[in-house]
Every structure is written in structure tokens, then in C-alpha cells.
Amino acid sequence: MALPTNEQVTEALRAVIDPELRRSIVDLGMVRSIDVRESGKVEVVVSLTTPGCPIRSHFQQAVASNVAALDGVTEVGVGFDVLSDEEKGNLQQALGRPGGLPEGALAAVKNVICVASGKGGVGKSTMTANLAAALHADGHSAGALDADVYGYSIPRMLGVDRKPDVNGERKIIPPTAPAGIKVMSIGFFLERNAAVVWRGPMLHKAIQQFLEDVAWDELDYLLLDLPPGTGDVSMTLAQLLPQAKVLVVTTPQPAAQSVARRAAEMAAKVDLEVLGVIENMSGFTTPDGQRFTIFGEGGGQLLADDLDVPLLGKVPLSERLREGADSGVPLVLEEPDAPASQAIRQLARGIVAATPQALPVMQAESPAAPAPSAPLSGTELPVVSA
Ligand SMILES: Nc1ncnc2c1ncn2[C@@H]1O[C@H](COP(=O)(O)OP(=O)(O)O)[C@@H](O)[C@H]1O
Ligand SMILES: [Mg+2]
């Protein structure tokens, strides 16, 4: 069978998009070399902007699958090197941004963490809200994106009850919760208690807008409360944020493990790294110190062992944690020394230890001066053309 030409390989590589710069690696000049061997093996070297580029595995997979699809290719080797400073300068110029910045509102977000679970009701949103508050309290800027479009609850849990504004550049400004956290939720765009009936492409578009058209600006951590299970939203997020990490929340009964595992399998399928497991509702301790394992015991550890990731923490059942979630004041702030708060604060520190504090792939320019803002009306997002 005839071997592909370098031009054909280049054409195939046009489909490989840098998720941060949102352009093909061919257009970005990031394809360093292409070598087509007699044997049908094709070697491609991709130049990254930084050596520790978190999206390396995304490129690895995308290059391999696109090139392997060409006739005559028996094997694909993907190598990496780093752009020189001069090349980086050229790239920034080609992007028309001498200050150097990728497009998209997530340009200055250092870590994206998805909070996932196999089913609802395990405390995913409670963990998202309290972890964001704990991270902020420890001096890390944090945001919470309520991606659970069918069961949105982050605005209530963080006590935010106002619609976002839109600035002069048509960016949505996320309201800041009293806890200091920037919040975005589908709930802001719906009449009170209205049900979301969006599916498929609508949903994809809405999530994409929450990531790209919201002025998140600089954040150390953006926490995403994912819908339970492995649905459309998770796939969309994984495509848009290949560098995101995943936390899996489960309850302690060993039977819950197989359900929670599905969330981890979703992560594996789309090549996202699972950071660890959180066991929630992990026993109840009475005021006189008696402990009851109401939802069983050991499920978190079993799941963590099974996934070969750490069990990052066990959060006990706590009426005060539930009350705080209902009233919009995260317990970690109201009562930082309560056992549930301590467990969550410990978790937050585990997350900090496990995530790089490095800047994003390229440093963002400083946010534009706030333009006069107009409140959003109705249920319509300010839709951008595709
Ligand atoms: N550790 C806990 N102790 C007591 N109540 C909890 C705990 N974690 C969550 N809850 C409560 O359980 C319910 C479900 O939690 P939620 O965070 O909404 O779950 P999910 O987002 O996974 O559906 C909420 O009422 C919440 O306040
Ligand atoms: Mg929830």
C-alpha cells in the first residue's frame, strides 16, 4: 500500500486543535517534524509552549488517532519538544496578541476540577460549594460552575441570588458569593424553579458559553459541579477542558462503589485524570461520641484502591453541613472547626498539594477595564454565533 505523503499527514494534523489557543496545531506552527518511514510508521514531533504542558496527553491521542486513520500507516510515534522563546514570540504575534494570551475566558484559570458522582444525592454539590469556600479561605481564588443543569443548586448553597451582568465585550460577569467565590449557574437564567428541558446541542452550547463567555479572569481553582452519571455534559466538558482533573464523590456503602466507578470510567474514556475519591456521609457521631455507620463503611477506600488513586478524605454526616447548604452559608466558613468542616478543609489542602500552581500555558493579559454593564433578562443566554 502506498505511503502517505508529508502533505497528507499535515492535512490530517489540521484536525488536531490546541484546546487553549483554539486553533489547529498546523496553523499554530506547532508541528516540528513529520517523518514517514518505509514500514508505514509515521513519526510526528509536536512543539509545546511549556515543557510541563498539561494537555500533552490530549495531543498525543489526537495526533495518533488522526494520523493512524490515513491509508498505509501502520504505526504512529508522537514526540514532543518545546518552542523556543523566539518561536513563542512568533506564535503570539500570529495570534495578534503581542502580550500573549490564548483566547477564551479560561485563559487565566490555573486548575479546573470536576466534581463527579455516579448518582445524585451523594453530596456532590455540597462538596463543590464547601471546597470552593475552603480553597478561598486558604487564600486561593476560586470559582464554582454549576454544570449540573438539571439539578442546579450551587447558587442556593453559596447564597447568591442575582442575575449576572454582561460587560461591554458581551462577556457574562459571574456574581461573587458572600464567601468570595465567583459563581455561574444555569439557574441564573431560569425563572425560579423552572425545569431545564434542554438536551444535546442546546446543552452543549450552554456549557460552552459558561466556559468561554464568562469573565472568570484569574482563578487558582474553578470547580465544576457535574451532573450525576456519564451524560452529554460530561463529554462536552471533557472535550472543551482536556486538562481538567476529576474528583469522584461516593457514599461509604460498598455497593455504591460500582455506581461511583461509572463516573471514573467516564473520566478514563475521555482521558481526564482522576485526582482522588471523596467519601461523603461517612458515619455519624452523636454528641456523646458514639459513631454510627449509617451508610455503611469502607466504600471510599474500596473505590480508591480500585481506581488506584488516593482517598482524599471522609466527610461525616452532619446536620449543620446540610443546614449550611440550605441556608447559603458553607459550614467551612460558619464553623471551621466542626468535624465535617475539618474534613473538607483537609480535602482542600489535599487538592492544593495534588495540583500544580503553575500559570496556564500562556499568561493572560490583565482583564479589560469593566465596561458599563446591563442586566441580563429572561432565560436567554447572550448567544454567540457558532
Ligand atoms: N455530609 C453530609 N451530612 C449531612 N447532609 C449532607 C451531607 N452531604 C450532603 N448532605 C445533604 O444531602 C443532600 C444531597 O446533597 P447534594 O450536595 O445536593 O448532593 P448531589 O449534588 O450529589 O445531588 C443535601 O440536602 C445536602 O445538604
Ligand atoms: Mg447537586
Explain the overall architecture.
The chain contains twelve helices and 17 strands. By secondary structure, the chain is of the alpha/beta class. It folds into two domains: 6-94, 2-Layer Sandwich (GMP Synthetase, Chain A, domain 3), CATH 3.30.300.130; 105-354, P-loop containing nucleotide triphosphate hydrolases (Rossmann fold). Strands 10-7-11-6-12-13-16 form a seven-stranded parallel beta sheet, sandwiched between helices. The protein has a three-stranded mixed beta sheet with strand order 3-4-5, covered by helices on one side. A hairpin with a 4-residue loop joins strand 3 and strand 4 (41-48). Helix 4 crosses helix 12 (339-354), helix 6 (200-212) packs parallel to helix 7 and helix 8 runs parallel beside helix 9. The chain is globular, with a radius of gyration of 22 Å. Magnesium ion binds at residues 124-125, 148, 151, 153, 225. Residues 124-125, 148, 151, 153, 225 line the site of magnesium ion.
Question: Helices, strands, pairings?
Answer:
Layout: H1 6-13, E1 17-18, E2 23-24, E3 31-36, E4 41-48, H2 56-68, E5 75-82, H3 85-94, E6 109-116, H4 124-137, E7 142-146, H5 154-157, E8 165-166, E9 172-173, E10 182-185, H6 200-212, E11 219-225, H7 232-240, E12 245-250, H8 256-269, E13 273-280, E14 284-285, E15 291-292, H9 299-307, E16 311-315, H10 319-327, H11 331-334, H12 339-354, E17 374-375
Parallel strand pairs: 4-5, 6-11, 6-12, 7-10, 7-11, 12-13, 13-16
Antiparallel strand pairs: 1-2, 3-4, 8-9, 8-17, 14-15
Helix pairs in contact: 4-12, 6-7, 8-9
The structure holds adenosine-5'-diphosphate and magnesium ion (MG).
